[in-house]
Amino acid sequence: MSPVFQVVLLATLLHASFQAQLMFDVKEGQPPPVLVGNVANGMGPGYRYILVSPLEFFTVDTNNGDLFTKVTLDREGAPCKGLDLCILNVSITATAPNSYDSISAGVKVVDINDQLPDFSVSSFQTTMSESASVNTMVPLPVATDADYDPRFRVQNYSLVPDIMNTFDLVINRTSRPDGSVDLSPNLRLIRKLDRETTPSYLVTLMASDGDHEVRLPIDIVVSDVNDNTPAFKQTSYSKTITENTTKDTVMLKVTATDPDANENGRVSYELVSNFQSKILDSFKILPDTGEIVLTRALDKEGGTTVYFNVRAYDHGVPSLSSLANVSVTIEDTINDPPIISLIFARMKDGNCSVSETEPSGMAVAVILVTDRDTGNNGVTSCSVDSDHFKLTSPRPPSEYLVVLSSALDREQQASYVVPISCWDKGSPPLTSTAEIQVFVEDVNDNPPVFTSAFYQMAVKENQRPLEFVGKVFATDADEGVNAQLRYYLETGVKAFRINETTGYLYTSGPLDRENVSSYSFKVFASDMSMAPLTASATVSVDVLDVNDNAPQFSSDSYRFKVMESASVDFLLGYVNASDPDIGPSGTVGYALTSYPSQPDPPFAISPITGALTLTREIDYETEAHYNFKVIAIDGGVPRNNKSVDVWVDVIDENDNSPVIAFPGPDNQSVVLNLGVSPGHEVIQVVAHDLDSGENGRLSYSLSAPNTSVSRLFWMNEDTGLVTLVAPLTLGDVQTYNIIIGVRDNGQPQHATQALLRVDIVEQSPRARVQESYTTIVIIMVCVTLFVAIVVLVTLCFIKYLDKKKFNADKHHHQHQKLTFDPISKTTAVYLAEGGGGDEVMEKAHKSGNNLDAAPTDFQQQRFGSQIRNGKKCVTFDSAIRESDVSMSSDSVFTQPDVGFVGLTFNPPSLSTFNRSASPVFNPSHKNSFSGLSSSGLNIPNIQFLQSPLSGAPTNMPLGSSNSSRSNSIANNVHKLDQGLTSQLLQQDQVVDVALQNHNALVRSMRHNRRTPDSVRQLRPSSASHETDLCSSSSVETSDSGHGGSELDVSVIKMNV
């Protein structure tokens, strides 16, 4: 706001030239817009209201005359600051075609308690002499309140905490010319002070305006006395100055005296203003002299009066003070040019605008001319220079209307410049000029037009939200907002949205072609005018298919049944799947896949029809149920698929006859003692049928030519149990041939027969003896098992001792090898020198003829890999064969496979073996033994005790060793001879241990590819024979590799 306008406005507020017809009250501090009131005051319809002044504080509704605040009004600020009564004069012009009127109103700004009391200092300290008399007064700082209404100024003071036993608070009240009261708090002493007891007091002075409180800390220091207050020569001062008074001019001097001496009597001055802060900006007082000096120029302030207080205080302790009132009147003495203020009836971009359809006489703007001068200096006149606009006659105080003098046409001229001149009647007159830029506004007389009445678009389904679909476009021939278009869709369209500005069409969310394949809706374009015009077009959107659906089967699983006799290509049925997609994405093909448990099901599926057919013959007895998956695959990209479980139940047919397991051709006889009682279960017929259900349920029957069979025996038809049903007599002792019949219950029915021979015999002493023998045999078998365990433990212990001995003296051991030939069931003994296991057999001595002289039948037994006597034969290479069998036939003793029941061992006198000879078994000599030819060798005798079924026992000489190990073997064998029967020697477990040890030795030699020297010399250069070793077990024990002290033992096996 310009200074000139401020002066004019202030003059308007202070000196209203006419009585306001309307009066409104509005409280300060309310944010705009606040409805002040209606200024129409009974005006007829058709008037348009234009606010002339004051524009910075109010606005008016041009249509109904409602007056609103434009800013937040402040009773303590401009323009009410310093005014006793703040009434803002409002001037409004009411216009109609060829008619207008002026409306004046007064708006009283009502003060509210929105300001807090304020102390000028943050704390206060005063000193009081301890000799001060009771009732001594100490002035306290005065709190000021910026609120204008006296009701909202400081209303009360109080002290905290309560020190009424020493001080109390005395409040002085001073009346002001406007009727308000100033409060001055004073601290009063009510009892004598004792500085030595209490040197100071700390209290808080609280000032309250009724709604707010402020606090001021006060420190009272006990000291000496200042008991006189400065006194002004007069209680009030007044001064009149002109507005052209220069800065730093001394306007007035106030004087106060204090009869006290020294600092207590030295007086200083200060300005005090409770609510006019600009006074402190315009004046100052010299603190030592009391001269009031002007601090700024007062032009534009003519015609006003300001009020303030001057405080005089001494410098005693405590300081005493007093107040005097000062008023300054400012006279108007400067001639200023008129001030032109333009108020536009309609604004556009900060300029005046008028519609091209406005009729003549319609007001375009209001010219407000103000001149704060007095007399002729303040009388003004105005004029305009235009063919289309004119001024109306002035209205008090100086108000003109700019109205249309002729119709306007925007198409011919879009804007006009209207020059304005205003001058006063001073001497000389002063003139001011202004211009109005009037823009002719366009009228919204053209509707939008789409580029096409129909838009065809397409979008894929399942796209993300806000997927671009297409664009619509429309134009409007108007200008400005009349040509600015807004696009929108008809109500109810939820699948799409449109950009209001660009016309771009988007999806609101994913679309599903399977639910809605196309959309058709209206799109509208509307301009942005106050009375918008609208156009429409039709949009059709096709939803393009995406392969987003997997095929769906008509059932969660399928189950088919088929007879096991069904032929190849038999049709089991169909599986059906559909896909809601279209085109290749909706075309469904079928494939069959299997489970690992049934990797090759005998079925095929048509990839087009889903027909399941049989690919090969099936058998219920082999597989009764099939489970596999059928996959339905569409033709889209990418392909989608869905699988379903298919179950095929094979229906059993009666295609299998019952099979009788007992009685059978090899076991069809049953013996019954004459003493068996009725109810005795003779046999349980064991039969089965591979079919199931009734086809596999068996029924049993018996028949015989002998009529006594039905009298003696009964068969349970359901279980096949044959039971004796009648007592047996001597006349029943005979053999009965019974035909056992088993039939199933299928269609057609199948039956099978078997012969059962039942011998009824009279019980004899011999039978009882046989029963005793049976018991003995059972006992002997148990003893045999126990002894076998003892033997195994013994062998392990011997092996441990040998290993220990070998480690002690590795180079001086001699070893005896006892081997067993499982083919001929003979035993051979030979001596070996060198290490065992992985070590090389360094020397091997033999006596007698070479192995090549052995009978041909022995060679045929030894060579080849075959199964003999239920044993597995393992074939080794020729090197091992020669090291195993290339021994002299003269030094071999053999024993046929006969039923021995005992073994006796006659220990010889031990002597040293001759290393040049090694006794071995010769398979060609069945019942003879050839002793060693070396001298000094005593051969012990082994007697084989023959069973009752065999001939006389045969004596077989056995070579002996000079080692303690030979004695150990002989003693162990002798101990075994004392407690074993023929069943002990038959145990396969013992034989297996021997075979495993033998295999370990051979494997070790083969691994190191070592052969005894004597064997290398005897081996034919072109030998290619293979030697086999028969074993009852395919498991070989690994060679311990502990050298020549290992004893590899093969035990002689004898069959009973």
From TrEMBL:
Is the Oxidoreductase keyword given for this protein? no
Q: Name one Pfam family in it.
A: Cadherin
PROSITE patterns according to UniProt: CADHERIN_1, CADHERIN_2
Polar residues biased stretches: 1019-1040
Where would you find this protein in the cell?
Answer: Cell membrane
Q: Which residues form the Cadherin domain?
A: 47-119, 120-232, 233-340, 353-450, 451-553, 554-660, 678-773
Q: Which GO terms describe its molecular function?
A: calcium ion binding
Provide the GO biological process annotations.
homophilic cell adhesion via plasma membrane adhesion molecules
Q: Which residues cross the membrane?
A: 773-798
Q: Which residues form the signal peptide?
A: 1-19
Q: What is the name listed in the Swiss-Prot or TrEMBL entry for this protein? A: Cadherin domain-containing protein
